[in-house]
Amino acid sequence: MKDIKIGLLGFGTVGAGVVEILEKNAALLKNRLGVPLTLAQVADLDISRDRGVSIDPVLLTTEAAQVVENPDIDIVVELIGGYEPARTLVMAALACGKSVVTANKALLARHGEEIYAEADRCGGEIFFEASVGGGIPLITSIKENLGANHFHAILGILNGTCNYILTRMTQNGESFGAVLKDAQEKGFAEADPTFDVEGIDTAHKLAVLIGLCFGSIPDFRNIYVEGISRISSVDIDFARQFGYVIKLLAISKRSENGIEARVHPTMLPEDHPLAAVDGVFNAVEVVGDYVGPVTWIGQGAGRKATASAVVGDILQAARNLRAGVRQRTAPLGYLPAALRALPIIPMDDLMGQFYLRFSVIDRPGVLGRISTILGEKGISIASMIQMKRKADSQVPVVMMTHRTREAAIRAALERIDSDGVNCEPSVLIRIENSDSD
After folding, report:
1. Taking Cα atoms as reference points, which of 107, 112, 101 lies closest to residue 76?
2. Please, which pLDDT band fits residue 396 given cuts at 50, 70 and 90?
3. What superfamily in CATH does domain 4-134+303-338 come from?
4. Mean pLDDT of the region 387-410
């Protein structure tokens, strides 16, 4: 084998980073692999825009199918993003027996099951290190180095945009809207930030991690998703008074009843390892039965970090091709026959601690009415902060509960909000404590 030829689908920010690494670190890659990695063809709808990297115009095409069907190409790299045409192209490449590298977490979250099955049927391989955590090498670590463990829990800060926003709100007391606008101007947030700030991007990544850790491919529609757009500086300040930091967390835990699968703003104790992960950084903690908790922290997005992970996968695929070995490791680290469907536990059935904030007119009987409703639902209060009385003015009342069932909390808040006690809708933020798991 004189060289290994690469076909690239998508010549955007990350695609240009991949081209840059293949060019600048060509000698290093050859020293690691033994043969050159050659960029054979690049497909994108726009092949005229300057990406800041040198590339022979002959290699460029607007027809992605040409790359997939090119018999000379050994490895297809999909960086288009989204569901279609990415799904069709990946499935076609696998059907041709090619190795596929992708950073597309949305594709894997929605269509992973059929993609993994197609790879198994056709003897192809799919690699997706860059789909979760950008440049953090956690997927290979879970599949390979930690493969001796049963995993019990996953906790992750998986979206740099949300983490940047919450960090700024925490450190500077700024509003969500002001920080989001600044993040967009600095390029940390998209013009349409919905997938990021509403937790959808994080949920895509959690779906991939659940498959890797628990050997179960979840139905994405059953993952509970709640974003950060309703988090206010008021809640961040109260969290600090209680000794907590608010983060958007991806959480999955395994029990005899199934698995939890949820994404939502979460209060973490200030001494928790993930509480200090700030800015655009990502972090993931998994807990194994033998290794215990393992935490990775690093750059979760961006041209350089993500391209580094993509080229790492290209190198791994190329090594397998050189050795004449395919499917040495199954996509999720489990043999296909060992994958099983574990039920996702409904949110109402989960037990936990909660932060509750009410906005009330400070008059006699108001606090008593709230306490009565909570008590009727079996909810015990662990601590409370009531702002200094201002006659006939709206003031916040904040409570932290003991462990209770989420269904009870929801029923109580619905009653309080409909009872005329609250001036504004109640605020609920879940708490993640090591002693409340």
Report:
1. 101
2. confident
3. NAD(P)-binding Rossmann-like Domain (3.40.50.720)
4. 83
Q: Is the pTM of this model over 0.90?
A: yes
**Residue for token pair 């005229």:** 48
Q: Which residue has the higher pLDDT, 302 or 66?
A: 66
Q: Which CATH number fits domain 349-436: 3.50.50.60, 3.40.50.150, 3.30.70.260, 3.30.70.1290?
A: 3.30.70.260
Find out whether 281 and 163 touch, Cβ atoms under 8 Å. Answer: yes
Give the separation between CA 34 and CA 296, rounded to whole angstroms. Answer: 30
Distance of CA 50 to the CA centre of its chain: 31
Distances in Å between the Cα of 307 and the Cα atoms of 98, 99, 300, 401, 409 are 20, 17, 11, 44, 44
Distances 239 to 235, 354, 402, 436 between C-alpha atoms, Å: 6, 11, 16, 17
Structure tokens at 210: 């659940």
Residue 41: which region, alpha, beta or left (left: phi > 0; alpha: psi -120 to 50)? beta
What's the pLDDT score for residue 434? 64
The number of residues making up the chain comes to: 437
Dihedral sign, Cα of residue 405, residue 410, residue 413, residue 415: negative
Contact 213, 143 (CB under 8 A): no
Q: Which two tokens stand for residue 154?
A: 């996953």
Alpha helices by DSSP H, listed for 25-95, are 26-33, 64-69, 86-95
| pLDDT tens string 339-361 | 998 999 999 999 999 999 998 87
- Burial-class residue 256 by CB neighbours within 10 Å (0-12, 13-18, 19+): exposed
Domain ranges of the chain: 4-134+303-338, 143-298, 349-436
CA-based end-to-end distance of the chain: 53
Active site residue 181: no
Active-site annotation holder among 5, 143, 205, 247? 205
Residue ranges in 76-190 assigned as alpha helix (H): 86-95, 105-122, 138-140, 160-172, 176-185
At the second CATH level, the architecture of 143-298 is 2-Layer Sandwich (3.30)
What is the residue whose two structure tokens read 């409340």? 436
For residues 5 and 405, give the distance between their C-alpha atoms in angstroms, rounded to a whole number: 55
User: E strands along 114-214, which residues?
Assistant: 125-127, 151-157
Q: Residue type for 290, please?
A: Y
